[in-house]
Description:
about 650 residues
Amino acid sequence: MLIVHGSSDGLPKFNEIIQLCIVKDNPIFIVRGVCAWYREHYGGFELSESPTREVGLIELGDLEDPYPLVEYIVAGLRMVILKRFFLVKGLKVLVLGTGSIPLALNCDSPLERSGQECLTMSNPAVLRVIFGDGSDSRKLHMVSGIPKTVDEVHDLVKASFRLHQEFRLQYMDSDFNEFMNLTSASEIQNMGTLKVIYTPLEEPYITLYTVEPTASSSPVPNTESSSLASSSSDATLCTSTPHSSPEVHTSGLSWPLVFVVPKFSYEAELELQQKNTEFETKGTHFNPGPKLKGIILDGLAQEMMKYTKYPKDYQCEEVAAALTKAHPCLGQLGCKSGFSGWKQSLKYKMQNYRTKLGRLGHPEIRVNSLKHKREGQGKSAAHIKKPRKAEVNYIPLHPKGETEDSLESERIALLTEVAKRDNEAVIKAKMEKTFSYRRQEVVNQRPRIEDFKNRWPALFEQSEVNAEFLRVTTKPLRSKFLSQFDNFTVKLMQILQNKGGVKGQRIKRFLEMADSCSNFDLRRECVLRSLVVYLNEDPDAFFKEYESTEEAEGDITATVMGIYSIRSQGHQEPDDIGVEIEGVKVMDNISTIINAFIVLFGLIYALDLAYPDSMKYTFEFVQKILMNLDGHKLNVKIQQLKIKLFA
């Protein structure tokens, strides 16, 4: 069911009803916004999912039309038609009947008062888009008119022409009669010209640092090109590049906001172009044969493999929707969405691709083969090891030219480097190089924390925890957490203050402490503890306080996961703050509780651990709301909190 709330360019905005709630006898709709384009041929609006997937709350009294609308399917398209007269922000939006065009009348205009008609609508636009030197130009149809922002224009051009490289846009300026940088969508006129300027790839840079020679280091050949380096120092020069170096193996990509359908083979693109033209003129759908369908699915599967080996349901759905959007002739009749068959075929195709990769020895697939499972896990679907917290580089491939033996030698050398002072650059380079080897050990062997810490002591430093999190998720840890947490603090405190009962009283005590704190980190800690209470979890069982080291060490051995602080009597500042996992003090001497929480969150990803049951809602909030890692499927508690945060 759909409702109308708000308008854009004189046309109504549609919202899909997710759930209806009754609050104090007042109905409130939980809705998700949908995109709509007016299709004059059908006399209605075509609906599609919004790329932002924003969820909101709408009260009954805020609706322009209290009667809900029902969508229907026409030629595989989701359609809806307005049938009532209502007001939208000073505009009367009138639909005369099925097949009519929506008319917007300015209620304050003298034309209406004199009985004349004042009609406006969001007119479709056509633009010429030039690529490169001008020899390649194409036509872009904007059926819903020119977008309001430059970002929307950029996304539309990228999706329409399936561009993969980064670019910027220029427009033909009428005053100077030459192309100028596009800074506002208002500069675009119907029948105007845009130019795509590709952004040049960043030149790879080389970082040089000195490493003490080891027994495993190969001697530098005494050639003319190397004489300068060898004459100035006997040390070895190590290099690292951020792009195409063989040592760079964390090449995974996060799932895109808008999936761009790849180019298929030449003959496949030619046939699809012909069928799309036939669909636009006659409305005839195209059912591709086995060969063409295989080419399409292969191309989509290869593109999806760049982002994930185990796509989730919503990801397959987004790819299927993007395919039918790029090639409307492939829409399927007989299903509500118009692409359910493609979605299911993609799931089977990805399954087949994983089988092929497993036979080739891909580590992320091979780890789930029967011969690599432990005793008692002899079923193919049992204990599948795959990314569950939006990890991008879950089990990456080894760097080019490296083997397990060579990386084991690097690990042993790393133990020596850790003992040296002022050696952060070398440690960072070796940790980067051995990342794939370390991840395979973590995921495949599931070692005890104490044993793993002895093998990889360099990982248990705050800087390396941040670096490891970046390698696994491609997102920064500390900066992202603090910026998002501070951004939500004011709104979060307002929500927490409305909590009633015993938990509400406890939250208010924390918030009073936060208001009286001049220290930002203490303020963050109080808000974090309040959030834990709000989610019906116990902060005292997770954030433990002790008065002596002896008392702490006796309790740590029985702790699965938590944060401890030792504060002597009479001291306001803690003597020590640390992180404990599986009864082991993994890190200590951390400056604040909030930093310890960030470090623990990073270690959960670095060590591939599950969230503790006593704090699973808090960690899910951090992952999916603050860090924006796989926030599509939320627990009911987190979903309700998110609705309040974004209301």
